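Supplementary Methods, section 5.1.

A reviewer requested that the exact input to the structure prediction be made available. We therefore reproduce it here, unchanged from the version used in the analyses.
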Amino acid sequence: MDQPKPRRTDAEIVQELLTLLDVEELDVDLYRGHRQPGGRGRVFGGQVIAQGLQAAQRSVEEKIAHSLHAYFMRPGNEDYPITYRVVRDFDGGSFATRRVIAMQRGVPILSMTASFQREEGGFHHQDAMPDVPPPEELRSEQELRRARIDEIPEAMRPFFLRRRPIEIRPVAARDWLDPKTAPPLSHSWFRAIAPLPDDPALHRAVLSFASDMSLLGTSSLPHAVSWFTPNFQSASLDHAVWLHEPFRADEWLLYATDSPWAGHARGFNRGRIFTRDGRLVASTAQEGLMRMRG
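The structure derived from this sequence is encoded token-by-token as follows.
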């Protein structure tokens, strides 16, 4: 009789994420991204963004990534690795710009530009952090899913319950199985489930990875649809991240998202990411495909 596989520790799951984001250098400004262990079907967009950012960061010295803008052209396939070509468009005294093309099987799946700045001071202001319950008072998304596992088709349960390196605790849990009309606004806490190394570039990549997890669905809230809704199709079209202040991605961060507009089979989403002490450390924006087929 086959013995059950031992349960992986949180540290082992996070180590898989670190390996995923440790792009392999093939040549000067040419990298290969690892595949997601156990991944199947379409590659998670946050993975491509984070790996592309890591490739770009390795071509820049003495400047810090402060923004990235990416367009998804084709869905990535988990069956194949992804290669990343970095183009050094600009190196100035204060700023540097990199262009990254992600390729799979000879065709581009994502194009991204990233900007880097030498650290300096300046004027400062920021939005106030929303007043929401702390993460200790909330249930994790994993717990919420386990509570309703009997309602999930058996074939989907392994994916639905797969342990992930990023823990999310929504302030108001979405009902993916029976969505109700709600305002296009969402708040959730997130962090890596185990400590990360003290590498600021890695923390920026992990935040970029996680920033694609709670954003796209915000524009679907007023329309009572989710990825479980029959014939509903959604996909990321682009993704932008602005990195404002230092942070740690293994400490709780609040992701506040809203959607001011949807139309023409597209939904527009915005996000703000705060530390527990109220610092606004990143902002995001994304437009996504959202349509009913048939």
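The chain is about 15% helix and 35% strand. These observations are discussed further in the main text.
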